[in-house]
């Protein structure tokens, strides 16, 4: 069975997000001052062949831990469909 893993990788809240700060500044320059914070991350989609949803979850988690997310600076969320 094929499952789709939707993975969101974001910088840890404790760390500075220079990309987010640049976008925030740009929004303010455009007159969009109602935005209080911007965090820039990644959205990754994996098509996974697995016997079960649990196995697909484990494979996606393994991919995140070994390659897709730097756990020192980022956190990730996996959603299997």
UniProtKB/TrEMBL annotation:
<comment type="subunit">
    <text>Part of the FGAM synthase complex composed of 1 PurL, 1 PurQ and 2 PurS subunits.</text>
</comment>
<dbReference type="GO" id="GO:0005737">
    <property type="term" value="C:cytoplasm"/>
</dbReference>
<comment type="similarity">
    <text>Belongs to the PurS family.</text>
</comment>
<keyword id="KW-0963">Cytoplasm</keyword>
<dbReference type="GO" id="GO:0004642">
    <property type="term" value="F:phosphoribosylformylglycinamidine synthase activity"/>
</dbReference>
<keyword id="KW-0067">ATP-binding</keyword>
<keyword id="KW-0658">Purine biosynthesis</keyword>
<dbReference type="InterPro" id="IPR003850">
    <property type="entry name" value="PurS"/>
</dbReference>
<dbReference type="GO" id="GO:0005524">
    <property type="term" value="F:ATP binding"/>
</dbReference>
<keyword id="KW-0436">Ligase</keyword>
<keyword id="KW-0547">Nucleotide-binding</keyword>
<protein>
    <recommendedName>
        <fullName>Phosphoribosylformylglycinamidine synthase subunit PurS</fullName>
        <ecNumber>6.3.5.3</ecNumber>
    </recommendedName>
</protein>
<dbReference type="InterPro" id="IPR036604">
    <property type="entry name" value="PurS-like_sf"/>
</dbReference>
<comment type="pathway">
    <text>Purine metabolism; IMP biosynthesis via de novo pathway; 5-amino-1-(5-phospho-D-ribosyl)imidazole from N(2)-formyl-N(1)-(5-phospho-D-ribosyl)glycinamide: step 1/2.</text>
</comment>
<comment type="function">
    <text>Part of the phosphoribosylformylglycinamidine synthase complex involved in the purines biosynthetic pathway. Catalyzes the ATP-dependent conversion of formylglycinamide ribonucleotide (FGAR) and glutamine to yield formylglycinamidine ribonucleotide (FGAM) and glutamate. The FGAM synthase complex is composed of three subunits. PurQ produces an ammonia molecule by converting glutamine to glutamate. PurL transfers the ammonia molecule to FGAR to form FGAM in an ATP-dependent manner.</text>
</comment>
<dbReference type="Pfam" id="PF02700">
    <property type="entry name" value="PurS"/>
</dbReference>
<dbReference type="GO" id="GO:0006189">
    <property type="term" value="P:'de novo' IMP biosynthetic process"/>
</dbReference>
